[in-house]
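Lecture notes, continued. The same structure-token format from the folding unit now serves as the input rather than the output. Read the line below as a description of shape only.
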């Protein structure tokens, strides 16, 4: 599940003074930590996502986070991992993964095989 954090615009001050896409980077760091947390912590984090650093600057509309929220909720006790992260169009971007892909609940079985 990939998600993208928007860069700061010059009209909106950024609380992070790192000099490199501070708004998107700080929100992305919070989200990566939330994804990798234990299920109890992870299930509460999306409810309080607006409290994350620069949340509304990075994601002005919450529906962009709904797919991640659904997948994280469906993951049960599986911890999330963020195997891919980087930048695209001057924005922080990360991809989260839940589960190991090896249990029957995570595999697609073809009928008759």
């Amino acid at each position: 599940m990939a998600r993208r954090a928007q860069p700061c615009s010059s009209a909106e001050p950024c609380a992070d003074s790192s000099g490199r896409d501070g708004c998107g980077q700080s929100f992305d760091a919070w989200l990566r930590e939330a994804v990798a947390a234990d299920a109890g912590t992870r299930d509460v984090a999306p409810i309080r996502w607006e409290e994350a650093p620069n949340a509304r600057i990075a994601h002005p509309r919450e529906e962009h986070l709904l797919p991640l929220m659904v997948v994280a909720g469906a993951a049960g006790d599986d911890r999330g991992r963020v195997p891919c992260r980087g930048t695209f169009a001057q924005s922080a971007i990360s991809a989260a993964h839940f589960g190991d892909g090896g249990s029957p609940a995570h595999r697609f079985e073809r009928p008759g095989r």
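Point for the exam: The chain is about 30% helix and 20% strand.
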